[in-house]
């Protein structure tokens, strides 16, 4: 295997935009087979076709990560079609930031469902396959906000701290099965993430900031490729990256 990345089968949740989409494109250019999960099927089907048209292998599967059976179907279909699953990138996430006293309780629930339960659903779907393969790599997308709490990021930060906590527990517990785990915590990257902030003042402030300092989603894609391409006996446990201009 050239550089330990070519011909791997990588399942990506949240592949319809932003970091997931950029990673799918980057990895397919490196010879990876990508299996794309998201709710917006038109987006992932178009992306799969683009990748196939340029000689790559890609499959799009409608997936809502809050639905355990749909995540299982995503992973099981990848294994049926391509024979194995080498990497799961648990990347789907939402960030409807708001001050806690505005009591946007439905958004709190959604963040917990997508950002925490979605990751757990991915782990549950992939572990049986990786255990029997005696190899695999689970990469979970956290955030700089999973290391540091900002005023207004309370619930989002709590979900990303949780992603880091469960990733570290997972890392220790899956050692007998030769499974690698990586946490990636990005700083400000220009994606559609801010579009779902319902509070207009919060959305505008974040848009202004990301417009000023944010970097391209390719940054994340390169980090993912770096983690995957290390030799099998080396596990990149955690990477934090920020735009150089971010404080
Ligand atoms: P985008 O909004 O561009 O992408 C989010 C992706 O998540 C979309 O593909 C969306 O697909 C998917 N998604 C959301 N809800 C669900 C769901 N219920 N089921 C399946 N897929 C879902 O944002 P980013 O690319 O920026 O976000 C990707 C990850 O990176 C998130 O976990 C985010 O928290 C994290 N992150 C991003 C940072 C940034 O600055 N951009 C910084 C730190 C972390 P669809 O709607 O089609 O289902």
What report would you give on this structure?
By secondary structure, the protein is α/β, with parallel strands linked by helices. It has a single domain (2-240), classed as Rossmann fold, CATH 3.40.50. Helices cover 47% and strands 16% of the residues. It is built from seven helices and seven strands; from the N terminus they run E-H-E-H-E-H-E-H-E-H-E-H-H-E. Strands 3-2-1-4-5-6-7 form a seven-stranded parallel beta sheet, with helices on both faces. Helix 4 runs parallel beside helix 5. The longest helix has 29 residues, at 105-133. The model has no long low-confidence stretch (mean pLDDT 97). The structure holds NADPH dihydro-nicotinamide-adenine-dinucleotide phosphate.
Summarize the model shown.
The protein has 247 residues and is an alpha/beta fold. It is 47% helix and 16% strand. The chain has one domain: NAD(P)-binding Rossmann-like Domain (Rossmann fold).
- Look at the structure and give the CATH class: Alpha Beta
> Structural class of the helices, strands and pairings?
alpha/beta
Mean pLDDT: 97
Using the alpha-carbon principal axes, give the shape.
Answer: globular
- CATH architecture name: 3-Layer(aba) Sandwich
Q: Quick one: how many beta strands? A: 7
Associated small molecules? NADPH dihydro-nicotinamide-adenine-dinucleotide phosphate
Q: Assign the CATH superfamily.
A: NAD(P)-binding Rossmann-like Domain
Strand content: 15-25%
H and E string = EHEHEHEHEHEHHE
Helical fraction equals 40-55%
Spatial strand sequence of the major β-sheet: 3-2-1-4-5-6-7
Task: Supply Rg.
Answer: 17 Å
Q: Low-confidence parts, pLDDT < 50 over ≥5 residues?
A: none
